[in-house]
Amino acid sequence: MNGARMNAGLYYGWIIVGASFFISFLTVGGRNGFGVFVIPMSTEFSWDRGTISLAASIGFLLNGLSQPFIGRLYDRVGGRKLILVSLVTIGISNLLLAATNHIIFLIIVFGVVMAIAMSGGSINTTVSIISKWFQRKRALAVAVVAAGAPMGGLVLVPLASYLIELAGWRETWAVLGVMVLVLAVPLAYFVMRERPEEMGLMPDGDSAPDSKDGKPDIKPRRAPLESDRWATCFASFPMWQLSGAYFVCGFTTALISAHFVPFAIEEGYSQSMAASAFGVMSGLNVVGVMVAGALGDKFNRKNLLSVVYFLRGCAYITLLVVPGLLGLWSFSLVAGFSWIATVPLTTALTADVYGLRNIGILGGIVFTAHQIGGALSIQLAGVLRDVTGSYDSALVIAAVLLMCASLLSFSIREKKYSVRYQEPAAQGA
Amino acid sequence: MLGFLSIAAHHGEAADPDLMEWIMHRIDTLVGLDAGLIVVILVVVIVLIPVGVLGLYALHRRKAEPTGEES
Predict the structure, then answer these.
(1) Contact call for A50 and B24, based on CB within 8 A
(2) Residues of A with CB below 8 A from B10's CB?
(3) Which residue of A1, A104, A130, A237 is most buried, as measured by CB atoms within 10 A?
(4) How far is B63 from chain A (nearest CA, A)?
(5) Ranges of each domain in chain A
């Protein structure tokens, strides 16, 4: 009897979601903890903030730029091998960071080796696997994995901070490395599987329809714009709609990350009020992404994506026009809720439209657009602040871009191009 | 080159050191636990996630093995 017909228990895809969640939790959450190492390391080596931040800056850029190449590697060698090699590299890099004795060493290990390895173990890689295991519940499954990153930050950053206080920064790097090698690597080794067909299963744990020869047909459905060549997909319009909107997502979230606290202080709020509002915003990420994932499986995904961008645009307008605490907190609530809600919707739409054949490189390209938007906004907002004396012009640009992203997402012809809306009988070979 | 790389400096430094110091102070004030105890609690939370997932994996294997459905 085939497994596809008797999986009455927990669908194996959810176990893969659990493992992917933990990989995001440990790797992205751990990387976000770099800030807590800045003061103890710069104190010991007499580095200024700019010098030590150089390692993080190079890492940020390399991580973003390497995504399409790592995505291509994923499409060729598969996600399980890529994730395992990346996790081992990340773990060893963490251990090596415990022996840091020069800024060049830090740049090479953290800024280059670890940043590229992070791409291999990134959400882009894990959700590419998840997309193969889920079709109907794709957005929710991706949302759970995406939620791992902010939750990891909430747990690992305080952990690193307390460990530094108790034992020192070298020991803390070592502990983070051991956790990756002892907890994440075995988990990925035992649990990760490339696709449900390997286990005789169907996406979402559905029962397989019988084919003509009487055997269950477990071949995955082909997406309308799926192609053997990724360049063909890249040249199609939905790819640019998704990437363009995701560029705006990166632009507007990085703007908040880098400039929200200085903006709030300039507006006359205390540092503790600014930090509280920022903390609430960060905490709401998890709620927003889970709601977006759950709704994304029930409703039209491009409409939801459009609503998320629209709401974030309204949040920016509120920050500009509503004075006082009401404006600040309204912005924090709405922007926090929408912060990573775009991830499951964008990722699921990319897989729905382009299929799974080149999902690694296509997801990598979309993610790179996000990172370019982020890098650009941080610089632009800083320059505009220096020239005009306030952040208002940067906030106006963000609000306008978000409304454009909302329209861009709404204009995606999901019913024509998404596999969700294709009749199984109409599927090509 | 260094100026260009400074574009991402804020973003790479996701946990701003000053902000983190303030947050840690707030946690200390609110929770009021010893730092060592907080570390133990956080480590237990972290370890429980993979242990839970591996537990589900083991259960799945046990259910699947008698029928030989897994390759």
Answers:
(1) no
(2) 257-259, 378
(3) A130
(4) 9
(5) 9-199, 230-412
